[in-house]
Design a protein that fits this description.
Elements lengths: L1 E2 L5 E4 L5 E5 L6 E6 L10 E3 L5 E4 L5 E6 L4 E6 L7 E3 L4 E5 L5 E6 L4 E7 L4 E6 L5 E5 L4 E5 L5 E6 L4 E6 L5 E5 L5 E5 L4 E2 L1
Antiparallel strand pairs: 1-2, 2-3, 3-4, 5-6, 6-7, 7-8, 9-10, 10-11, 11-12, 13-14, 14-15, 15-16, 17-18, 18-19, 19-20
Length: 195
């Protein structure tokens, strides 16, 4: 789900290939957008600064771009599995490739893929710091990779068993959630280590 500026919620469905736009207070469905014509199976969503909804396509190897102002949509083919997505402050969307071990960057203003880099096995969750660093959880390697905004590896951080989700807090510290245990770990960005 993704909440928009009006406080309403976009909900994407994997199996039925639809997005529902629901009132954030009542839950009433205000409209439905069927994206089955582009075979999109929503696996996560984000809204950029222009109000465009972006969604991970999972095993369909693309991201979806949906414009809520007119419900138009298209896909950006990436050539790899798309698991996690994250936005920076400079109009870039980053997409991890899970089993395809890739990381791609898309320009959200043009809707074009700018690059794809070979990444790390089972790259899942993605988040971006205020400075533009991209953090990706790598489940099979038990690490979080810190990438520069232009796709260079800056650090690889040991993160516990099977990390799947990452986030950055207001203080710039990273957080990682592991599938293999019950812990949430904090990453110190100054030392690139769990503190």
């Amino acid at each position: 789900p993704q909440v928009d500026a009006l406080g309403n919620v976009w909900l994407g469905t994997y199996g039925t290939r639809k997005f529902y736009y629901a009132d954030g207070h009542t839950g009433q469905i205000l409209k439905t957008v069927d994206v089955s014509s582009v075979n999109h199976t929503s696996y996560g969503a984000l809204m950029d600064a222009q109000g465009i909804l972006w969604s991970s396509g999972h095993d369909k190897n693309h991201v979806l771009r949906l414009n809520p102002s007119d419900d138009s949509f298209s896909v950006v083919p990436l050539g790899h599995f798309v698991y996690g997505i994250g936005l920076d402050r400079d109009n870039h969307l980053f997409a991890s490739g899970w089993t395809d071990a890739k990381l791609s960057r898309i320009n959200v203003l043009t809707g074009q893929k700018e690059w794809t880099r070979n990444g790390f096995d089972q790259a899942r969750g993605v988040t971006v710091t205020d400075e533009g660093d991209v953090w990706v959880a790598n489940s099979s390697l038990n690490t979080v990779t810190r990438w520069s905004n232009d796709g260079m590896v800056k650090a690889t951080i040991s993160a516990g068993p099977q990390p799947v989700g990452v986030a950055v807090d207001a203080g710039g510290e990273g957080w990682v959630r592991d599938l293999g245990d019950e812990y949430l770990r904090r990453i110190n960005p100054a030392s690139d280590s769990i503190d």
